[in-house]
Amino acid sequence: MNFKPPLILLALSSISGCTAAPLQKPAASNVLVTRNTPADDCRFVGEVLGSQGNFWTAEFTSDEDLIAGARNRMRDRAYDLGANFVQIELENQSHNTADHSTGGVYSSVILGNAYACPSL
Q1: Which residues contact 45 (CB under 8 A, 6 or more apart)?
Q2: Of 26, 32, 38, 112, whose CB has the highest number of CB atoms within 10 Å?
Q3: Which is the CATH superfamily of the domain at 4-116?
């Protein structure tokens, strides 16, 4: 039996969990993500969610990359709705409390309201 292809796939999938999820749409980098209230001329277009991380890749992904990846995924979803502004409603970083040897964040979830703002 040849176990090399499955082992290679496993190694590559483990490594891919080590960085922030990139933006899928470069123009989504223009979506402003903030806790601030949108301007009066902004129109609500939907709710957006971004997340990254899980228990298995937490040891290999920095807390900053988990948060950045979640924001990137949220920006992509907001862009798909035609939004250029997201007001954050909830940010949740799940901490590993079961195993005290690891610690740190193991997933990041961000929920926000997306708006199309002509003044931006």
Answers
A1: 81, 82, 83, 114, 115, 116
A2: 112
A3: Hypothetical protein apc22750. Chain B (3.30.110.70)
